[in-house]
Amino acid sequence: MPRSTPEQVTVEKSPSYFITEEVPQRIHDMSSTVKLLLVVRDPVQRAISDHTQSLSKGKTRTLEQRIMKETDPGAVDPESYIVKIGLYAKHFRRWLDSFPRSQILIVSGEDLVTKPADVMADVQEFLNLEKIVNEDYFFFNETKGFPCLKRDPHEAVPKCLDGSKGRHHPDVNPEILEKLRRFYKPYNEQFYKLVNVNFHWR
After folding, report:
1. Which residues have a Cβ under 8 Å from the Cβ of 1 and sit 6 or more positions away?
2. Cα three-residue angle 157-162-166, rounded to 5 degrees
3. 49 in a known ligand binding site
4. What pLDDT, in 10s, does the model give residues 115-169?
5. Domain limits, the chain
6. Residue 41 annotated as binding?
7. 14 is in an annotated binding site
8. 131 is in an annotated binding site
9. CA 171, CA 123: separation in Å to the nearest integer?
10. Is 167 annotated as a binding residue?
11. What does the record list as coiled-coil region(s) (predicted)?
């Protein structure tokens, strides 16, 4: 990590940190007082988004081929990479072995899209930052379906997420969707209890 002055806050992010087993302890060894932000979204939609990303890179396997067991095509495979990322309760327990819950802010990915100013108010408070970023810093891009960020509230052209975000998701067989929802339901309920937040994912 870069050296920071007492007046600075250094931020680093990577989705793979959350699911990689050795990471919580390694971060704790670096700094036991670090504050952590975890952004989560409906794991079913997360899996579909992951699949959409793969299709954009030229992969040809269908979502069904990626998430269902080869030995039992009617069952979701918990060892499938895009499935197990969404087992939030399993991963989060590992983080609680290294950090107190008070050092981790859980951020709703859905809220980050629909009400980014509210989320940023929570983030700034959690990080003990002056609450500067508010609704004046955001512009909702109807085409992408995501908010764009202005570097200052008077900026004419906001900075929007790149082309890898806001892609149209492919149609998914409703039966596969329902199987994914049933699969994730108990894991979601465990996660709600761990973080004391009910996200009401279907």
Report:
1. 10, 12, 30
2. 105
3. yes
4. 999 999 999 999 999 999 999 998 888 777 788 888 888 877 777 866 555 556 6
5. 17-161+180-195
6. yes
7. no
8. no
9. 34
10. yes
11. none
